Amino acid sequence: MSDTTSGLLTILTLVVVLAAVYVPFGDYMARTFTSTSHTRVESRLYRLVGVDPDSPQTARSYTVSVLGFSVVSIVALYAILVGQQALPFGRDLPGMPWDMGINTAVSFVTNTNWQSYAGESTLGFAAQAGGLAVQNFLSAAVGMAVAVALLRGFMRTRSDDLGNFWVDLVRTTFRILLPVAFVAAILLVSFGAIQNFADHTVNAVAGGTQVVPGGPVASQEVIKELGTNGGGFFNANSAHPFENPNPLSNLLEMFLILVIPISLTRTVGTMLGRRKQGLAVLGAMTVMIGAALAVATWAEAGGHSQAARLAGGAMEGKETQLGTWASAMFGVFTTGTSTGAVNAAHDSFTPAGGGTVLVNMMLGEVSPGGVGAGIYGILIMAILTVFIAGLMVGRTPEILGKKIGTKEMTYVALYTLSVPAIILVGVGTAIALGSTPDAMGNPGGHGFSEVVYAFTSAANNNGSAFGGITVTSHFFQIALALAMLLGRFVPIVLVLALAGSLARQGKVPTTAGTLPTHTPLFTGLLVGVILLITGLTFFPALALGPLAEALA
Amino acid sequence: MNRLHLSSGFVRQSLVGLKLLVVMTVVLGVVYPAAVWGISQTAFHEKANGQIVSVDGKDVGSKLIGQNFATKDDDLFHGRPSAGDYDGLASAPSNLGPSNPDLLSAIKKRQATIAAIEGVDVADIPADAVTASGSGLDPYISPEYARLQVPRVAKARGLTTGAIEKLVADHTDGRQLGFLGEPKVNVLELNLALPDR
What we know:
Chain A is mainly alpha-helical. Helices cover 66% and strands 2% of the residues of chain A. By secondary structure, chain B is mostly helical. Chain B contains 8 helices and 5 strands; from the N terminus they run ααββααβαααββα. Chain B has a 3-stranded antiparallel beta sheet with strand order 3-5-4. In chain B, strands 1-2 form a two-stranded antiparallel ribbon. Classes of the chains: A mainly alpha, B mainly alpha.
């Protein structure tokens, strides 16, 4: 069998499995968020923490809950990371330095999972499982909650009710993430991922000793993918054989990365009572991710780089058993979903392959985007699309029965500008600093790409890296923490404000003049607008980095 | 007044958040990994513990973690170049960019070394032999790279190439389930299968 056949069959298998769960899982998630009954355990939990689960929240109250919970989470995680020597299973490691602690705490609470540390040499098992993995669940649940609140904005009429944040958070965690993670973790161990609590020293065959690392890896690995978090237990992330032991586990992990972002389009269709709307959104995501997959695979499998031509294949930074196809695939899915886990070194990808995963993030994480974040991101883009289409024909834009007025458009415009502004200001500041060239791991345009990649990854809450860059200076730790924080919460505040303003509106009836938003034409317009925004914003940066390198 | 209301709301909501976070940490950070551990250790004991390989009662490595197999007599199959020199606590790729002169010269140097010790043309050396892996701990090499090393290992051990070739063939795994990933040879297992001199 040729590599091409093998690669295409792998993609086909993934598509078939995703298609099989799309309807039942998407509808299950919709029921999770619309059901009015609480399980007994949930009710007891709400009583324990002092929440009335049946009291709806306004946009402002929902926002305050999201921010309050996130602030508490960052402080608690910071305490765990810098004070980990007080915890059991600490492997005799000291606490993190303060700047790394801030960076890491912000990183995991914002669902970014940017890592300025190497897991196996920095963290004990308690900090990993009890600190980082907990936020892998909860930060994903926060993203879902915000997406659902936006959907309620479209569903409600003349109402202030966006649902209850705590209920959305608890249900996402207990009804969706935890059950899937538990089953997947056992499956992953059966494939060869480890789950233990002890490093093991062996006498190596050629002499000397080697430490075979241990840890509760499988339980953290699955939620790292399922929650589109991406922070590896080990420094090498999913390239590490204990995180991702073979091509079958690689397939499982790609499935976990994609299953919620993809199935959420069904959830949207079901909750809005407009199934075709979900398919139109899925269509736009599929077009973008398909194109990225084609380019990255062409570049990696074809070995279109200086190093690959010299070596006889683009295998630098890739595992033997995964090869170029499965590495390109994983790279595209992990950057398209804001996951940021890697099973190969993106820094060593060919110029076109590395450029593709960078652009994938610059699209704003909507192809298909992170858990929850992808859906609210693409709905914002859909609003922008009806606005632009409305301008062309001189009509007041409307979408899903809601008018898009000045207020709504202000939120959308700020959303669209916020993340690119964070990235470009961050990159500009870094480049203006004399110390930055020393932090770059590679010379020339590629070194510049490392800086662009770092801020793009942080602000979009992706977390993958062109890993050659050294980001342990105070400047990078704090600047990237700020980028992650602003890149997460500025959009969330705007989305919730938008949701509140949509919920307060009445419904506008669909007329002959309404631009239908569930058609292939709209899907095409939506993709066009996303590409246009990305291109206008990032072309100069791309020209200096990957484009210059690809043409060199 | 409005601001005061908001800030007291924020504090109250944060307290709810703190209580919820404590509960969640117990459930997701303690019970969940412990439950996965309990089931894994019972049902998949060997895998959950990293598939440690022992010889004569002595642990010599993990099936999934590559090692540096360079010896004085050069009588073992070599794994891939490693950016972390197969340090089990320092998994890492090289992170060298695709046009970085350092990477290009490293590849050329590896090609020259392998061509010399294996007695082959540079053109016959597969890519995995001259590139560092993503993990720095890659336990596998391509079947092509394994076959290329057969004459050297056979000579160093005073065995026929036929015998070693058969061992390589026996230790070559095809694509998983017939279509997933790449064919591969586990270097640790192959080296342990070599007969003593």
